[in-house]
Amino acid sequence: MGRVRTKTVKRSAKVIIERYYPKLTLDFETNKRICDEIAIIASKRLRNKIAGYTTHLMKRIQRGPVRGISFKLQEEERERKDQYVPEVSALDVSQTESGQLDVDADTKDLLKSMGFDNLKVNVVAVSQQQQAERPPSFRSSLNPAPGITEKKNSYLAFGRPWRYPDNVCPGWLFPRLAWFSLVWRAIPG
């Protein structure tokens, strides 16, 4: 079961990343040892929480800038991207073999509406991008199997006779959304 990350853990992890970014890696064990060396942390449990959140943030930084973390390398990367100028313009038709730009029909209409009718364009069909196959998410595994009938008791009826997997939650707890789908039956008598 997930734990709440306190403000102390988050703040400490951000400070460690800002000051010691070049030393940190994407590996928890390495980051744990680095946190031990660079900081005096009161307990092993707190150290592990800080190292875990540091590792999580390092993985997020790999994907892009993270809000609230400002370090020199990230700022330099942002400046480099902002000041990038391509060597050859995308609109330079002299660089293409056919002497025309390859665009789709919508782009051609856009150019026409903007007054760039004089550009030589070649209309090509847009090929749909393939989406990568992703494993099913955790949420989809929580849905009950189709075709399960309602489980009825003499006093209670649960709308969903399904249990969480034992690795998520012990089976003795109520089924998912049981509080909302709980229907009280009249006691015979």
From TrEMBL:
One of its GO terms (cellular component) is ribosome. One of its GO terms (molecular function) is structural constituent of ribosome. PROSITE patterns: RIBOSOMAL_S17E (PS00712). It comes from the Eukaryota. GO terms for biological process: translation. Keywords: Ribonucleoprotein, Ribosomal protein. Belongs to the eukaryotic ribosomal protein eS17 family. This is 40S ribosomal protein S17. The lineage of its organism: Eukaryota, Fungi, Dikarya, Ascomycota, Pezizomycotina.
